[in-house]
Structure formats: structure tokens, C-alpha cells
Amino acid sequence: MPLWSLTESDSEAWTAADVAATEEDNSSPANVPERVGSFLQASSIGLRLRSTLEDFLTFKDCQELLRATTLATVMHQGCHLFSTPAGSRDTHSLSRVVDGIDVFLSHNWSTPRHAKFLTLVYEYNFGGAIWVMLLACMAITIASSCSDALAVPDKTIEPELSRESGHACGCKLLSVPIFFVALFLGRDVAKCFGKPGPTLFLDKCCINQVDRTAQQHGIRKLGAFLSKSQKMFVLYSDTYLQKLWTIYEIASFLAIHDLRHLKIVPVSQPQTLFVLIAFWELYHVLIVALRIFEDFDYFAYALCIIGGFGIILTVRAWERDKAEIQKRVRNFVVQDATCANEADRPLVYFNIQCLMQGKGLVAPGCSMDEALETFNNLVRTTLPYAFLSMEGSRMFKFRDYLLFGFVADGVEGLDWFATLYLRGQPFRIILAESLYRVIWLAVWPSLMAVLELVCSYKMFLRGWREKVWLGLWLLLVFAVSAMFNEITNFMRVEARESDLSLALLFCLIPVVWAVCVGLCSSWRAPAAPPVDDLRHSSTDLLSIASIKHLKEDDEDEGLASI
């Protein structure tokens, strides 16, 4: 049931006041009282609208409804709260009354629980897990430099390094498992030290799901929850733009907040990255096992090609998803969005109408159809920019590329350093090996970025033609990388005796890293147009009582005449 409505006479009075305030008026003072009366009537309507909008966008007189939970609570037991959308008194007790909300969590209940958990740990635990892994690798390297406990026989290294004593492998075998343990359990450990993370809005916890009346009241305050949230974090999946509630949440947030406060992460992105890291860990385990044989290069090359083909197929699918997202957003119609409970649709429509009038995007007293059409235009205008900011020009962030490079070659470099130091090799040999590894720490991310770039071209290809085209590019990239490896490996060996080769390795490092940064950095999406540009008029209904004013002398004369 509507909280308020404007009568036909109210709308006419509003229009009359608006016209009278904007047009140049050279009429006689006798017409001023009529103008003032129209203005006062419109102002009273404005006060009513202001009161309603304050009720819609604030928690005035009901501060106890502003509740939030914590990130640690949401992520506990692998995001157990996402197992089912049904709430209870117990889930509601997991939230508390707050003054403000750090993050509004927007998601679909149809998205699998594990996908949401991986996305949340990727966003909030990723940095801490990397630091834990780096510190652990440093400790393992120091331990490997002092003892053969983490070394295995290796018939592929030079005879002078003692093939029987072997090659250190602690970082290769332990770095990734340590990273995943810190990634998945980091928030629970932080909570034990009094760091539960930012406050989050999760509908299941923050809105009473048992009392139907309280639930409806909380849903009506969804605009206020959005207004009180500093940021919005979107767990994007294929169904996100097809659900009425989630579309309403993200579009309403952009109507209230700036685009820079919105963060969108597709749930497929962290899954792809973690599978890729796990693949490299499997690769390292197999390589360590096969180093007891003298010739295993062909097997290693085959693994790299298989893994590379899996990467380009995944990225290719992501490129198609990006195009589909833009198409879906630009053709958006809120009336076509699905709603799990159709009984909630009138309430969502009413909230949309309130928001559109509250932002001044439609005139007071507009019809529901007009408000919904304006909302459709708002979605079509702002959301493409929001998803462009999500996409950038790369599927992964720069930090993801660096992690890939470290897992692919950085851990190998640390194990080599420990092996050379333990065998008492000269400083020059250790330096040459270190420079070689620093170069390849940048080469691996660059290769992956090139494969991503290739996947964004010739999107019209389908079926076997597409796979052949991608396969040829993969072989070309692999051939170039193999050639570059032979060159840098030759320079590494020569640098043990030649100052020129050592100097070339030094000079090659900034060049390779500059290329890496250029290839792996995402471009910034263009800024979204301000919501104010979409306004139906220049009127802001939140301060409607003073939207227009008459000329001071005319107003004084009119009041005197009254």
C-alpha cells in the first residue's frame, strides 16, 4: 500500500508553481498573490514529499533497524550463511545495531555458496595470504640454505652441484598450500585477534526474516540501507542482471553514490585464478618427481601447452560474457526481471518510484509506468560504465599476474638460491641465477597477458575454427617464449665468466618489467555521467520546500496584498 500519493490538483499546483518560478514575468503586481498562493501550495506538497523521502532514505525514528554483521561472520565455515536464503532468529542475532555500514553485499541466492566464498576470500583475504606465503618462502629458503632436509635428487643440474645431494624444493612444494591455508582461514584467525573485518549488510542477517511485518518494514528501508553504506560489493554471476532485487540494489546504489564506491567481481574470476595456481602446484610436484630422470623436458612442455590451452579457452569465454553483459544492460527492462517471490514485486516497484522521485528524475505525481521507464533509462545509462570498470581490459588484476609469475618461476628461483648457497657456489653464479629468475618473474605474467589479449580478437570465430586459431597463437607464444628462454639461459651461463653477459642481464631486467607492467595493467573505464544529468527537471525533491523562489520584491508585494 503506498505511503503517500499526490492528487491531481496537487500535481497541477506543483506544475503551476514550477512554471511561474521559471519563466520571466512582467505582469502587474495584481497577479502576484495568485502566484504566491500557488507557490505555497507547491511548497506544502514539497514538505510532504520531503517527509516521505526522509522516511525512505533514512532511519529517522527507527534507528534500531540499521543493523549490520561482520565479514568474519559471513565467511565463517566457508560462508555457511549462503547455504539457504531462509532466515531465523539465530541468523538475525548475528547482526547488531550500528551507526553506518561499510559494505553492502549484493548477490543472488541462486549463485553457489562455494563461488561466493572464493570471491570473498579473493577480495578480502588475498593480500594477507600473499604476505604469509612470502614470509613462509623466506623462512623455507633460509632453512634450505642450511640443510638438505628439503632437497631431492636431481639429475638435470650441473654435476658440480652434486646431483646426489639434490636440489632444494621446499618453496615449490609448500608455497601454494601455505597460500591457500592462509587464504581460506585468514579471516577466522584475524577474528581471534579481535579483527572481524568490515561491517556488511546481508539481508538474511540484517532484516528480520521471522516477523512478516518487521520484514516488510526492513525491505521498505532498503533505500536507507543503501544510503548508509559506504561501498557496495557485487558478487556477479550470470543471473545477476536477471533478478529484480539485485538490479534494484545496484541501480539504486548508483543513484545515491558515486561509481567509485561500487566494486563488481565476477565469481568466475577468482575460481579461474585459483585453478590456475593449483595447476602450477601440480606441475611443480610432477617436475620434482620426474627430476630423478635425466630427460623430462618434453613432458614439461606438454603440460605447459595443455595448461595454456585451458587458460585461453577460459579467457575466451570471459570475453564473450563481457559482450553479453553489455548487451543485456543496454536492453534492460525492469518489468522482465524475475522475482523469487512475486508478492514482493509491487513493493520493489514502489521503492523504485520513491527513489526516482527522490532523486528528481521524474516529476512529483508521476505514474508508476513513467517511474519504471525512467529507472530503465538509469540502468541502461549508468550500469555499462559500472561493468566497464569491472572489466578493464584484463580478466585479472595486476596483483594476480604477479602472483602467477611468482608461483610459476619465483619459487623455483628461491629454491635455486638455496641450492647454490648450500653448495658453496661463488657469489657471481648466485647473482647470475638471481638475475635470470627476476627476468622470468616478469616474463610469465607477460605471456599470460598476451594470451588474454589474443582472446579478445576475432570474436566471430566459432567451433573448430576458433580453437585452431587460438591453438596457433598458443604455439606461437610458446615458441617465442622457448626461444627467449634459450637466449636468457645462455646469458645466465655466460654471465658466470663474462662481464658483458652479466651487464646484459642487468639491462634486460628494466626492459622486461616495463613490458610486463604495460601488458598487465588495466585501462580505466570512462567516467559514468552524473545521475543529475538524467533529472526530469532541475528540482531536487530532498530540498523541495525551497526549489524555486519568486523575486524578492514581488514576493513582498504579494504577501502584503494577502
Please explain how this structure is put together.
Helices cover 63% and strands 6% of the residues. It has 562 residues and is mostly helical. Strands 2-1-6-3-7-8 form a 6-stranded mixed beta sheet, with helices on both faces. Strands 4-5 form a two-stranded antiparallel ribbon. Helix 11 links the parallel strand 7 (229-236) and strand 8 (262-266).
- In spatial order, strands of the major sheet run 2-1-6-3-7-8
Mean pLDDT: 77
Shape: elongated
Contiguous low-pLDDT stretches (5 residues minimum) are: 1-43, 534-562
DSSP helix fraction: 55-70%
Order of helices and strands: HHEHHEEHHEEHEHHHEHEHHHHHHHHH
Tell me the radius of gyration.
Answer: 31 Å
Largest sheet, in brief, is: 6 strands, mixed
* Helix/sheet category: mainly alpha
| Termini gap | 39 Å
| Count of distinct strands | 8
Number of helices: 20
**SS strand fraction:** 5-15%
What does this entry show, briefly?
The chain is mostly helical and 562 residues long. The chain has 20 helices and eight strands. The longest helix has 34 residues.
Provide key terms for this protein.
two-stranded antiparallel ribbon, six-stranded mixed sheet, 562 residues, 6% strand, elongated
